[in-house]
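FAQ

Q: What does a record look like?
A: Structure on top, sequence underneath. For example:
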């Protein structure tokens, strides 16, 4: 594999998907997605390990049913009669009752695919138990970039403890240790006096399967190249690195770059630029700093200048950003995608006496301590929203808010739920009233 361009060789992947928000029932999520979707341009079903287009007259019949507002439709394809359920996102064979996952891409390019239980990589019959949530991992194959199983990485590793609970420490004679350490030290880090103290392999579970699903969605929407992953380094203070590995990204690292940030997104550097991300690291109490070798899905990036305040794609034509299309030094993934399109693979712990970090403690504290206004915003907002919605909606709203308060869903997910469930019109009315105009 050519590490210098960051490409990862395609592998056969088992798709999986993560549902809309914690606290939503599958039917509610399906209804919201159905209402949000434009007219489908393509329908796809998951067959024999891949998403396959529904073609011919069947696709036209489904499109017509969708436009008419019907949530189920009958159609025949390949000589078999099926029932297509848009709310449950499933296709059911009328003769055998076998179910296959159903998804679609609308005319705007927005993708709508089902939750994990509908996508297990095999056909299911009614009453089948769901597939167990097996933790899966992948390793960097020297010369290829293909993923390998958990066993290969764990065979030479020790079960981690403490903050690295989802990572296994590799022995120095482990092949993956040698490949990753060589990549880290070969581009100027050794010359700066860096010494590797540990390499740990990260276990993935559902996070890995969601990453695979995102790759398939990007490939379906943008072409095969857009679904190809790249290797990249993620740098941040030790506690942020540990959180990203164990639980997911708590926020972006853009504040550490200050005016040099290319928008408010997670900044990762190409594999040949470990020093760039290392400067965002901050040593922990042992004197160790940590960066993470990740796989990242960029889709179709746009160019952003330093100092930009952009925090999402400028249009539906783009998925991410870079500082330079031909020779990028930064890959930028937006916060809405950071936990689904960035997959931590290896944590590299190191000591480097000549490492000059950038970013201040003041900037870091801004990421970690939200202001009192931000903390108190939602109770006030919800109290006002309840005056504009029905009692049944209030009940669902409060239930979802309690899930958010118990940290069962992220802030970005809760905000998306509010926009989808309450609607921008009500939110705008409430916001204007709270601001006094």
């Amino acid at each position: 594999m050519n590490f210098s361009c960051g490409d990862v060789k395609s592998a056969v992947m088992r798709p999986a998907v993560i549902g809309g928000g914690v606290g939503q029932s599958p039917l509610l999520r399906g209804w919201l997605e159905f209402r949000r979707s434009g007219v489908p341009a393509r329908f796809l079903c998951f067959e024999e390990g891949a998403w396959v287009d529904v073609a011919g007259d069947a696709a036209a019949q489904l499109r017509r049913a969708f436009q008419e507002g019907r949530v189920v439709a009958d159609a025949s394809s390949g000589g078999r009669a099926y029932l297509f359920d848009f709310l449950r996102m499933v296709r059911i064979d009328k003769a055998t009752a076998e179910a296959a996952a159903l998804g679609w891409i609308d005319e705007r390019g927005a993708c709508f695919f089902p939750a994990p239980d509908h996508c297990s990589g095999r056909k299911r019959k009614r009453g089948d138990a769901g597939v167990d949530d097996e933790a899966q991992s992948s390793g960097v194959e020297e010369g290829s970039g293909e993923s390998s199983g958990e066993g290969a990485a764990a065979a030479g590793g020790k079960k981690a403890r403490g903050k690295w609970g989802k990572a296994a420490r590799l022995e120095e004679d482990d092949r993956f240790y040698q490949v990753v350490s060589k990549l880290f030290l070969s581009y100027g880090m050794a010359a700066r006096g860096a010494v590797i103290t540990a390499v740990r392999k990260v276990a993935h579970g559902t996070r890995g399967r969601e990453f695979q699903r995102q790759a398939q969605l990007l490939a379906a929407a943008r072409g095969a190249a857009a679904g190809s992953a790249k290797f990249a380094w993620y740098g941040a203070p030790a506690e942020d690195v540990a959180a990203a590995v164990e639980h997911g990204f708590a926020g972006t690292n853009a504040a550490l770059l200050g005016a040099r940030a290319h928008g408010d997104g997670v900044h990762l550097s190409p594999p040949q630029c470990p020093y760039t991300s290392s400067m965002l690291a901050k040593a922990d109490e042992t004197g160790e700093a940590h960066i993470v070798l990740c796989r990242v899905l960029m889709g179709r990036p746009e160019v952003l200048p330093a100092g930009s305040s952009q925090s999402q794609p400028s249009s539906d034509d783009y998925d991410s950003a870079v500082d330079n299309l031909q020779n990028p030094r930064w890959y930028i993934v937006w916060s809405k995608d950071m936990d689904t399109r960035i997959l931590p693979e290896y944590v590299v712990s190191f000591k480097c006496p000549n490492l000059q970090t950038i970013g201040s403690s003041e900037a870091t504290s801004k990421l970690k301590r939200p202001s009192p206004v931000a903390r108190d915003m939602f109770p006030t907002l919800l109290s006002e929203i309840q005056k504009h919605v029905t009692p049944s909606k209030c009940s669902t709203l409060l239930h979802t808010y309690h899930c958010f308060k118990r940290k069962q869903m992220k802030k970005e997910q809760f905000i998306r739920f509010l926009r989808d469930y309450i609607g921008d019109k009500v939110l705008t009315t409430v916001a204007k009233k709270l601001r006094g105009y």
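Q: Is there anything notable about this one?
A: Residues 1-5, 7-23, 117-161, 359-376 have pLDDT under 50 and may be disordered.
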